[in-house]
Amino acid sequence: MTEKRRNIIIIAAVSIVFLALLIVATFYDLEITRALADLEVGQYQSNNIFGRIFETIGEMPVYLITLFAASIIIANLARRKRSAVFVITIIILEFISIFAAYYAFHKLFKYLTEHFDIVSSNSWTTELSYVLLGAILVVAINVLSRKYSLDFLNSVLPWAVIVLATVALSQFFTQVVIKIPAGRYRYCTMNTLDDFSHFTKWFCFNGKISPTEAMLEMGIAKDGMKSFPSGHTCAAATLITLTSLPMFLKEANTKKYKIICWCSVVAFVLIVMVTRLIMGKHFLSDVLIGGFVTVICYYVCLIFGKKLYDKKIKLQPLEKIKPVISEERI
13, 127, 134, 156: which one has the fewest Cβ atoms less than 10 Å from its Cβ? Predict the structure, then answer.
């Protein structure tokens, strides 16, 4: 069996399973989450330790992969002759990296505080400390990126561009285009109110809705009406970009890497999806669409982004020009 035919069969099988689950979710969303959610009546935050751990780390892949991809592009451009376009691109990517690192620390300590009683505050000094931590992390990554070999940078540069495009598109569609206008009540929000009359199907958009002051006093979070789609699943599914590395990096083009990579990605994303239901933060349709958005954005960027890079952006291989800094192999 050829690889192309095998890929078609896999895509068809996954599509059938996805559609079947979405149909089930369309009719039994509420019942499924009610059966899995580890919540008492009136409770907003679940005490399930498994769910708390993966709520804390579930979004980290999108930030870490963004930092890694940005470091590849920055290291590549930094070894070339200085030009206005390269310098501006590097500056923009440094700001994006610092923002991603800041948000990673912000989210991490937010969930650690909520679930594990780590002392924290929401003052401007706390947020500033996250920015400083993010800047330190970015500097450290930039220093380590000097170890990237020229062969490595030449090979994975288009992959890094595709990754950043995937992150930008998937986050934009999930957080802005869909989540805000959807205005879907979370299961835990309705559980806290002990009123499930607010439940709506995944395809019903309710418009932008925010919790009232009374709801906030009951412990409902500010994003208590942002159930659809799942941001955690969208972020976790960003790991799928690692599966295309064999297309660009010969060292990763091995059967062992492909098996380990795919198994790890699928396992992590599935665990995040299930724990979102256990925490009562999402419905089955939320996590299905959250992952679907990222996967679609990724394949669109992979197919069209690679063609666009090859035709319009492709840079001269680094080995054919004099490196700006000394080169060490990865």
Answer: 13
